[in-house]
Q: What sequence folds into this?
């Protein structure tokens, strides 16, 4: 006997709850590569790296091992691993394997995650020294480090904590002076305030620089024979660093090559060409296929 | 009808043929001359040279020549690597086409650039070929140049030979995001606010200390209070009283701008009354000076100056706390 509206089917409710549960689990769990596969790849990369270290007497064989290790680390990165330790290993493998561009790119990627890591900074500095030996004068020379090597690197967060601590100290000192009116304390307050002002200027500059770099991604020259062109095509004049001018003679001897590993910042993109700015201020175009671009 | 249209069709066909760009492989129609020029003429094997090819039209040209493919000329391709230099075949002169190529001698046998042939159709319908003059080259053996730019490569640091191991290498870290503006704003506001709260609570707990602190804001008061702190009744009470009176006189002289000299109680009262100091405070100051005089001019056996410095300190603090001289420091 039909007695009004049928109740909602219980099984359907259970099914809905189950589906929601599955969805929640699917959304909440980060996508990761198969752990066992990743572990195997990691073990293989480490073995290749150590094989390369053991081949010190045979540099060409060692280079192959390091390149294999680098390939395996890249595979791990492609499968979802993303941390400073991975990029440090990748940079080391690239550097020992002779791939300066890859090394610079990997170390820079790691430093973005862990700016205070001294190993990453040391590796990047070693790679940059090698690049600096290959460039002509200042054309394509790596950027000079802002701080000496012994100064620890700071992330934006750690800088904030540091400057906040200093700010609180200055506020407390001034309040204390307001209470006691001691002349000596007044001088201490003035000195502390001046130091704090200098710190604020430094932090502001650092933060602005970081934001500028976020807006202009890193470009690393990866191919062997790359020229800086005046326009977005190979027929445009190429840069001659010795003459500090563009040359359209077509002779290779008159144009200056950008060696692999040279760092630049992306300004503009048009088709298959990128407009870049080198650290020395030179602006020109390079083919997209000849560089590594640090952009998600 | 067909017979009447055919001349028009022929004319249209001629215009179409004339207007369309030359297709690769199509022979140009007209009379042509080919000239070539190479730079440099003396070079090393595998060093590039630029070959400029000029095609000159003699008379009217019905179809322009396209870029000759030097790669397809066996005598040239056998001895040279050929690369077209695109985008430079622009010439303002009519009936003149310029093409540039980058050539690299393959070996020392590449002693000359052979004449470049150009096949064309003469307006009378005959197929003809024009050749450029061959160019002699001096190709030298390749000398290995060792160009050392900058210092030799430095030894890599030992740190690059170390690997990070363990499951942390497989971790996925989130990229750091820049801090929001409100975080910076909060960081800028919280410390001063905390200090202000601290100061207010301190004032509530120490009202006298607050008054003393305010009195120290006057520089002359601070100077006088420091001098009074240092004043000790070590020897003669008359000297002690004189010094205490001199300190208070100096303070009043700074505040009221008169020459600091020994003040009598009457003189001090006169100055204070002129400065609109409340009568009660005037009386206290006069009493202090009277007390000092009493000690100074009393017989030595009756001189007792203890507490005079404390009295002077309290007097100055009261005058400062009540801002008795504040009006004199204001601008009109």
A:
């Amino acid at each position: 006997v039909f007695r009004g509206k049928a109740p909602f089917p219980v099984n359907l409710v259970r099914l809905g709850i189950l589906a929601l549960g599955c969805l929640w689990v699917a959304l909440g769990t980060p996508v990761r590569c198969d752990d066992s596969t990743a572990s195997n790849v990691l073990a293989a990369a480490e073995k290749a790296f150590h094989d390369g270290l053991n081949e010190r007497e045979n540099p060409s064989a060692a280079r192959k091992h390091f390149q294999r290790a680098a390939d395996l680390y890249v595979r791990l990165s492609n499968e979802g691993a993303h941390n400073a330790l991975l990029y440090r290993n990748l940079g080391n493998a690239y550097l020992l394997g002779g791939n300066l561009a890859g090394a610079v790119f990997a170390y820079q990627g790691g430093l973005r995650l862990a700016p205070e890591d001294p190993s990453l900074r040391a590796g990047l500095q070693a790679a940059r020294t090698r690049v600096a030996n290959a460039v002509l004068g200042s054309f394509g020379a790596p950027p000079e480090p802002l701080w000496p090597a012994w100064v620890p690197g700071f992330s934006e967060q750690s800088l904030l904590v540091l400057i906040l601590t200093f700010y609180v100290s200055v506020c407390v000192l001034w309040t204390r002076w307001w209470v006691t009116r001691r002349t000596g304390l007044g001088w201490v307050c003035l000195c502390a305030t001046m130091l704090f002002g200098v710190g604020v200027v430094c932090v502001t500059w650092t933060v602005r620089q970081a934001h500028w770099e976020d807006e202009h991604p890193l470009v690393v020259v990866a191919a062997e024979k790359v020229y800086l062109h005046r326009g977005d095509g190979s027929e445009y004049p190429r840069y001659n660093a010795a003459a500090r001018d563009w040359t359209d003679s077509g002779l290779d001897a008159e144009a200056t090559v950008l060696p692999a590993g040279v760092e630049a910042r992306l300004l503009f993109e048009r088709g298959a060409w990128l407009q870049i700015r080198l650290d020395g201020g030179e602006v020109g175009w390079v083919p997209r296929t000849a560089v590594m671009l640090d952009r998600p | 009808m067909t017979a009447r249209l055919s001349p028009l069709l022929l004319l249209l066909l001629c215009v179409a043929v004339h207007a369309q760009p030359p297709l690769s492989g199509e022979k140009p129609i007209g009379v042509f001359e080919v000239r070539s020029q190479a730079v440099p003429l003396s070079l090393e094997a595998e060093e590039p040279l630029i070959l400029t090819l000029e095609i000159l039209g003699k008379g009217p040209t019905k179809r322009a020549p396209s870029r000759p493919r030097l790669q397809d000329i066996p005598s040239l391709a056998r001895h040279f690597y050929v690369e077209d230099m695109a985008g430079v075949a622009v010439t303002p002169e009519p009936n003149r086409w310029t093409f540039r190529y980058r050539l690299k001698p393959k070996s020392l046998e590449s002693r000359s650039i052979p004449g470049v042939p150009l096949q064309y159709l003469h307006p009378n319908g005959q197929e003809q070929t024009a050749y450029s003059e061959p160019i002699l080259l001096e190709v030298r053996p390749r000398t290995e140049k060792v160009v050392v730019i900058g210092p030799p490569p430095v030894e890599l640091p030992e740190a690059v030979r170390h690997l990070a191991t363990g499951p942390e290498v497989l971790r996925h870290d989130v990229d750091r995001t820049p801090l929001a503006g409100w975080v910076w704003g909060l960081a800028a506001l919280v410390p001063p606010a905390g200090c202000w709260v601290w100061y207010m609570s301190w004032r509530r707990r120490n009202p006298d200390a607050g008054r003393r602190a305010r009195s120290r804001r006057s520089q002359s008061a601070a100077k006088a209070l420091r001098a009074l702190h240092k004043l000790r009744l070590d020897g003669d009470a008359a000297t002690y009283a004189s010094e205490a009176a001199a300190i208070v006189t100096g303070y009043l002289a700074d505040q009221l701008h008169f020459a600091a000299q020994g003040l009598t109680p009457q003189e001090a009262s006169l100055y204070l009354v002129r400065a609109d100091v409340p009568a009660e405070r005037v009386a206290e100051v006069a009493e202090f000076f009277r007390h000092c005089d009493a000690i100074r001019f009393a017989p030595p056996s009756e001189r007792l100056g203890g507490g005079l410095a404390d009295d002077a300190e309290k007097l100055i603090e009261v005058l400062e706390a009540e801002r008795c001289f504040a009006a004199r420091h204001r601008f009109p």
